[in-house]
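Quick one:
INPUT:
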């Protein structure tokens, strides 16, 4: 398939801008026959605005998010509902969504092969009218993210290890919240429950939080969300869980509950909860969610570049 135009959106927020290609590099390595535009974000939500405006004006084009998971979510929100395609270069700290769809992280190699993009589709998560691309989480790991962002700001050189350091610190704070939930499974069964839970998430992709693997069986285009809740744990139990959770080996643990769902509702019974939307902190009291199957047109790199 031949795409009409290519818009590269460079997010200065991604890893502090350190991993971004320059405009000169993009023009140097991208096929010169392509019609390319390059823009840089200037303020909060600018990414979504740029993507939507370009997508509506240029149907059949590709909008390339250059940044981390937060940037990818913002661009996906802008592309969603247009007739353009979402693509991305993994230029952030964790680059977790990339782990679910690709094995390549070399930006130069990806730029050289951007003309080989193939049309595909991705699911999205709709949560309270907002859009999540990868994973929405709450509880311990969302609190962990807040701490990780503090560490990243104070110690920029430990960006890639910040989540691990944050996990070791957060484990000694409050590690459970009282939550009520109702979900519909893929078979149409309604499941309800309430209690104290240490963490929970709704996953479209497999990874988040710098390589943690909450949903090892997740598929970003199967029309299914992987819903997980972990019963209240002691500090010892949680420390034991973390390494298994990192490797995706937690699913058989007795206190871990996994469901394949299409929609649901989460409500905090203890006031406000911290929500992690693809790396963005968004507090909530109650939120309804559902899968948007094949909602996002996706321009995927050809697998022959991974050889």
């Amino acid at each position: 398939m031949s795409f009409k135009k290519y818009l590269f959106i460079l997010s200065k927020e991604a890893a502090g801008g350190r991993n971004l290609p320059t405009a000169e590099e993009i023009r140097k390595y991208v096929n010169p026959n392509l019609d390319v535009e390059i823009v840089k974000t200037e303020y909060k939500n600018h990414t979504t605005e740029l993507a939507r405006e370009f997508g509506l004006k240029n149907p059949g084009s590709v909008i390339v998010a250059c940044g981390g998971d937060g940037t990818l979510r913002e661009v996906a929100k802008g592309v969603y509902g247009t007739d353009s395609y979402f693509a991305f270069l993994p230029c952030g700290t964790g680059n977790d969504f990339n782990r679910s769809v690709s094995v390549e992280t070399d930006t130069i190699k990806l730029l050289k092969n951007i003309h080989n993009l193939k049309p595909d589709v991705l699911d999205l998560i709709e949560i309270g009218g907002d859009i999540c691309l990868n994973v929405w989480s709450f509880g311990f790991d969302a609190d962990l993210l807040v701490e990780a962002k503090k560490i990243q700001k104070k110690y920029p050189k430990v960006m890639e290890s910040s989540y691990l350091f944050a996990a070791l610190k957060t484990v000694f704070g409050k590690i459970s919240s009282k939550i009520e939930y109702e979900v519909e499974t893929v078979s149409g069964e309604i499941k309800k429950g309430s209690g104290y839970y240490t963490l929970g998430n709704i996953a479209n992709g497999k990874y988040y939080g710098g390589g943690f693997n909450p949903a090892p069986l997740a598929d970003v285009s199967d029309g299914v969300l992987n819903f997980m809740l972990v019963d209240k744990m002691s500090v010892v139990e949680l420390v034991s869980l973390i390494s298994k959770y990192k490797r995706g080996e937690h699913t058989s643990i007795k206190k871990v509950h996994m469901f394949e769902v299409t929609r649901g509702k989460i409500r905090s019974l203890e006031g406000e909860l911290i929500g992690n939307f693809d790396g963005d902190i968004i507090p909530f009291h109650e939120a309804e969610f559902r899968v948007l199957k094949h909602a996002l047109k996706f321009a995927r790199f050809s697998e022959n570049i991974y050889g």
